[in-house]
Design goal:
Layout lengths: L20 H54 L11 E4 L10 H4 L5 E6 L10 E2 L10 E4 L5 E3 L2 H4 L9 E9 L3 E4 L7 E5 L14 E5 L3 E6 L8 E3 L27 E14 L5 E7 L15 E5 L1 E10 L9 E3 L17 E15 L9 E3 L3 E4 L5 E11 L6
Parallel strand pairs: 1-10, 3-19
Antiparallel strand pairs: 2-4, 2-6, 4-5, 6-12, 7-8, 8-11, 9-10, 9-12, 12-13, 13-14, 15-16, 15-17, 17-20, 18-19
Length: 399
């Protein structure tokens, strides 16, 4: 018997070969191509997502800007039952800081047109993020005289190329009129409903006191929390101040009469805190007085507003419907010698909005047409821009 076993043959290693160099290189190339495709798709998704977010933010800023403008413009001219009241102005109309466009309640709407930015402009307005000078903006007053930008507004730093608009109305105050000590005096006793020894009207506030037939307009020169209002001289620098030679009060004002504060807002485009063009609003109710108790600093409402153009809808036949839209420089006085802005029944606001950061790969060199074909040439960049138009009916104008 054979006790020896035959040893099995080892596997033939010739039948188990690895990848060749060519196969390895092909696999690497295919892997790199697939990775490149995935990375490209991912970067494209990130870019499109970023662009979509920036567009959404621009649209949100647009809605926010229009909501502010619409609210204040729709209230322009509101005077309660004093719509047809005869106003006696005690403000110092000869003061350097006075202008009807800012303080006269009879001029409920006003605006300054940036020179060369109308629909008939032969060349586009080139934006440079620089502050303009007074003569860059004009309007035509009730006397038919071309008036440059008010110095108080100019000091706020409006950017060249954009229009400026001012809306005024009367805001009913909670303060109660006690009495006029004497019709020849310069003070009115007044108090808050809850505190009978003081009022809450700030120093510098332009105040209207009266009834549905007549009313007096003056600047309160007394401090908040005092027991009376005053149309005297006061202390410090108040703009525009009161005319100290003016006549006595129109009436013995008392608790049965109304007390209003002038609400005057100016809208303009200026550089914001981050150096980005933004929509600003400033309260002129206190006349931008350095020594008043109201803020004299414009509030940055919406960033990314690169340009604002304003067209005014003028009613020429008395049916409260705009027959034509013109710029502020195109509004002429009425036949009766009143401000042509009193015939404005609607306003068309056009905004050029931009992203806060670069949002596209190509440089934007486009010239944008705002409103009724107003050409605007912004700074070339990779920013995303859109235009928007809103026509606002003025409920209290022309009535």
């Amino acid at each position: 018997m054979n006790i020896f076993c035959k040893r099995p043959r080892p596997p033939n290693i010739d039948h188990h070969q690895g990848m060749t160099l060519v196969e390895l290189m092909v696999a690497l190339v295919l892997g790199l191509m697939l990775t490149g495709i995935v990375v490209t798709m991912y970067l494209g998704f990130i870019q499109s997502s970023r662009t979509a977010n920036q567009i959404a933010r621009i649209q949100e800023n647009t809605r926010f800007a229009n909501s502010f403008l619409q609210k204040d413009l729709r209230e322009a001219g509101y005077a309660g039952c004093n719509q047809d009241t005869k106003f006696k102005i005690y403000l110092d109309q000869n003061a350097a800081g006075y202008s009807d466009e800012l303080f006269n309640i009879g001029f409920a709407l006003a605006g300054w047109e940036y020179t060369g930015s109308g629909p008939d402009a032969t060349n586009p307005v080139v934006l440079t993020d620089s502050v303009g000078i007074a003569s860059d903006w004009t309007l035509i007053d009730a006397s038919g005289i071309t008036v440059n930008m008010n110095d108080a507004i100019l000091a706020l730093g409006p950017l060249a190329g954009s229009d400026v608009i001012v809306a005024k109305s009367m805001q009913e105050l909670d303060t109660i009129v006690d009495t006029v000590g004497a019709i020849e005096s310069d003070s009115i006793d007044a108090h808050d409903p809850d505190i009978i020894t003081q009022h809450d009207i700030p120093k510098g506030q332009v105040v209207i006191v009266g009834d549905c037939n007549e009313a007096d307009v003056f600047q309160n020169v007394n401090i908040r929390n005092a027991d009376h209002l005053s149309r005297g001289q006061g202390t410090g620098v108040l703009v525009p101040g009161n005319d100290l030679t003016s006549e006595p009060w129109s009436n013995f004002w008392g608790p049965e009469h109304n007390l209003y504060g002038l609400q005057s807002w100016a809208y303009y485009v200026a550089l914001g805190v981050g150096g980005i063009p933004s929509l600003f609003r400033v309260d002129i109710s206190c006349g931008l007085s350095p020594d008043g108790e109201c803020s004299t600093i414009g509030s940055e409402l919406v960033e990314g507003v690169e340009n604002m153009q304003v067209m005014y809808g003028v009613d020429t036949d008395g049916d409260l419907v705009a027959n034509q839209y013109v710029t502020a420089a195109g509004i002429t006085p009425t036949a009766g010698g009143e401000s042509g802005f009193n015939d404005v029944v609607s306003v068309r606001i056009s905004l050029l909005m931009r992203s806060l950061d670069n949002g596209q790969d190509i440089i934007d060199t486009e010239i944008y047409n705002l409103g009724d074909g107003i050409p605007i040439n912004p700074i070339d960049s990779r920013l995303i821009r859109i235009t928007t138009n809103a026509t606002i009916h003025l409920r209290n104008m022309g009535v």
